[in-house]
Each structure stands twice: as structure tokens, then as C-alpha cells.
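comment on this one:
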Amino acid sequence: MNAMPPKQDRIGARVPREVYETLCRAAELTGSTVNQFLVRAALKEAQAVIEREQVLRLSARDWECLLDLMENPPAPNSALRSALRRYQQTRSGDAVASFDEQP
């Protein structure tokens, strides 16, 4: 039984001649086709964007501060208690509400 190759999608772009020539030269210098070069470069940039948007980087000092706040949270102030009451009132009619924590 022959396995079917995975489906591949197509990407296309129209670019000015100068851009195309630059891409062709870069691809040639790396020993790849223009398509291979474009996909590799675009994927690298896409992964960098995703990481930049999803990963939170903290200095050692900020990390220690965050851990201390998580382990020793401050007492709720009046604004937080008021927000909790409003939240509970909004959710009181919701049968699936599971937030029953009291300050």
C-alpha cells in the first residue's frame, strides 16, 4: 500500500524586480532555490514573532519579585474586593459558575 505524501499548501508573492534579484542572489549564495530560501527565512521570522509574543522574559531581579508576590500576595484592597463582588453578581445566574472563593 502506497502512503500518500502530506498535503502541501502554496504561497505566492509579487515583488519588484530588484527584490526578486536580491532574493535569487541570496538563495544562490546559500545553495538553495528561491522557494527554499523564502520558506526558510519566513519560517525563521514567523517563529521569532511567535516566541516574542508568547514568551515573557524577566530579569533575575524581576523573577524574584514575581515569585515573592506569588508566594506572599498582598491582602486584597477595596478595589479588588469590589471587583470580586461585581464579578460574583454577574456570574450568580450562571449555572456553571465555579468561582466561589471569598476574600
User: Anything to note?
Assistant: Helices lie at 17-30, 34-54, 60-71, 78-91. Residues 47 and 63 are 24 Å apart (CA to CA). The two ends are 64 Å apart (CA to CA). The chain has four helices and no strands.
